[in-house]
Amino acid sequence: MIITGKYPNLRLRRNRKNDWARRLVQENSLSVNDLILPIFVIDGKNKKESIKTMPGVYRYSVDKIPTILDKAIKYKIPMVALFPYTNKKLKDSLGFEALNENNLVCRSIRLIKKKYKNKIGIMCDVALDPYTSHGHDGILQNGKVLNDETVEILVKQSLLQAEMGCDVIAPSDMMDGRVGKIRKALDKNNFKDIQILSYAAKYASGFYGPFRDAVGSKKSLKGDKKTYQMDYSNSQEALREIKLDIIEGADIVMVKPGMPYLDIIKSIKENFKIPVFAYQVSGEYSLIKNAIDKKIINKNCIIESLTGFKRAGATAVVTYFADQIAKYLK
Ligand code: PBG
């Protein structure tokens, strides 16, 4: 970098002297177009249930989804992500409920598409953890999560979600080869326009704690997910994961968690020409939210944290703050 001039001729503070001057030289900014809102759904009627570990976030029964969707559409949030809290009785070791066309996610997609048509995008996780009795993302056999057998079920789960009207299929399971198999199956079944958003660089992280509470897989999870999710010490490996998913047909790749992994977002952006999304996960949300509620930090920290993703190179962010800040951003 060439710097022309030096102090006292050069004073970087001139460009920061007041609000209008700062706005003119701003390099990145956050808008509502950058936000994806996760929604937790639960069985029952007329329910809006708070989640202890995620203050300000709720589980909605399917009939109550419009209360949050109306808001999302009013503020022009481009997409929602659906996550089910599955009744324990419906869970089994193979996660069969994932393939039930009347499961919570399928019912939610149908309702949203019927009521709102194409006013908002729907993305759905492809993984078995909300449905398995052991809480793993795939089939567990003798303590091992099986790759190829799991992928076969994930392909069926993807096709089912596509049939229901899901716009963006988001494999979050970290099995090898699943993006290619899902792409092939979608194309073969006339779902050529359905996007695949791959959770390509997903780390085995402690920051998912509150989410597992929100979908009810926390108590059931046996062991950890280190044999399929990535080691948080690695970055080269993330580029390999990304490259493979691009070759297999991903339209968008995601990095998850968010804030501790800004370097990964940046290096993907530098190495590949593909949209990169970030996931500000549940643990990050709860940390910031609790600190704001206790007046340890102020609300601006939400915008600051999200703008950080933009600066690193993310084009959009999945965040539980989406509905809370959309009004402010508009
Ligand atoms: C499931 C999945 C997880 C999250 C999104 N999809 C949890 C996990 O992998 O254990 C975490 C999201 C969050 O913490 O906000 N495959």
Largest sheet: 8 strands, parallel, barrel
Distance between the termini: 36 Å
Task: Tell me, rounded to a whole number, the average pLDDT.
Answer: 97
Overall, the morphology is: globular
What does this 3D model show about the protein?
The mean pLDDT is 97. The chain contains eleven helices and twelve strands. The chain has a single domain, classed as Alpha-Beta Barrel (TIM Barrel). The relative contact order is 0.14. The protein has 330 residues and is an alpha/beta fold. It is globular. It has helices at 19-24, 65-74, 104-116, 147-164, 178-188, 209-214, 236-248, 262-271, 282-293, 300-312, 322-329; strands at residues 35-42, 48-50, 58-61, 79-85, 121-126, 139-141, 144-146, 168-171, 195-202, 252-256, 276-280, 316-319. The structure holds ligand PBG. The site of ligand PBG has 12 residues, from α6.
Please outline the helices and strands:
Layout: H1 19-24, E1 35-42, E2 48-50, E3 58-61, H2 65-74, E4 79-85, H3 104-116, E5 121-126, E6 139-141, E7 144-146, H4 147-164, E8 168-171, H5 178-188, E9 195-202, H6 209-214, H7 236-248, E10 252-256, H8 262-271, E11 276-280, H9 282-293, H10 300-312, E12 316-319, H11 322-329
Parallel strand pairs: 1-3, 1-4, 1-12, 4-5, 5-8, 8-9, 9-10, 10-11, 11-12
Antiparallel strand pairs: 2-3, 6-7
Helix pairs in contact: 4-5
The chain binds ligand PBG.
